[in-house]
Amino acid sequence: MDGNGRWARKRLMPRGVGHKAGVDALVKVVQAAADRGIGYLTVFAFSSENWKRPEEEVSGLMSLLLVALSKHLTRLKADGVRIRIAGDLDTVSPRIRDALRGAEKDTEDNSRLVLTVAFNYGGRWDIVQACRAAMAAGVAPAELDEPTLARFMTMSYAPDPDLFIRTGGEVRLSNFLLWQSAYAEFFFTDCLWPDFDAAELDKAVASFARRERRFGDVGASGQGEGALGGADDDLTCADDGSVAGGR
Ligand code: IPE
Ligand code: MG
What pLDDT score was predicted for residue 181? Predict the structure, then answer.
């Protein structure tokens, strides 16, 4: 969910106003995703690197999280949303930790849409904590394979993501879901997060629907002829078929 700060700056407002607008966008996108039958939505709310931001912005984001939960939790719960948290909560303030754990507990009986909020999350952190947990569980080096390690990743309850969306124009992963995104389809858009809505979600899903997923195989079309070739000009590397080229 990138672009909150720029969204606010364009309006000559403080960055915090953009974060607030970002929460409103998120609530609408969650509803839109649930309406479309999407079962799992995972959002990068605060990265393990975001602590580097000015202290005023960090504390603003923490307060906003508490306000957003108290404002929207009841509605999300009534809409069948189950909230789960991915990230290192051992190093955040007890107030934040309790609020996040409380939201998880409060919505644990829901199953219409699982909303995972990645908070104090980093993809590398996730892999390291999974390795540690596997070792602590007594998994021997020779037994450690991909399915085994996957069981220890923070989001072992969810399928790997099909579609990875990044708003705000940057074309990088920024340490999000590194393990889980091995075969995700990527959608990068210049749309700033507070402007992202149901129509933008539909664009991303339509782009996803045009892609041929081969998971390393040659695919249904037989000879590795990219279904992407020219069909999807919002893909950054579709022209030469390199994404479709069997990696
Ligand atoms: C939201 O957007 C990111 C967070 C959730 C912390 P940014 O705050 O990164 O906005 P830009 O990139 O400065 O526009
Ligand atoms: Mg940013």
Answer: 98
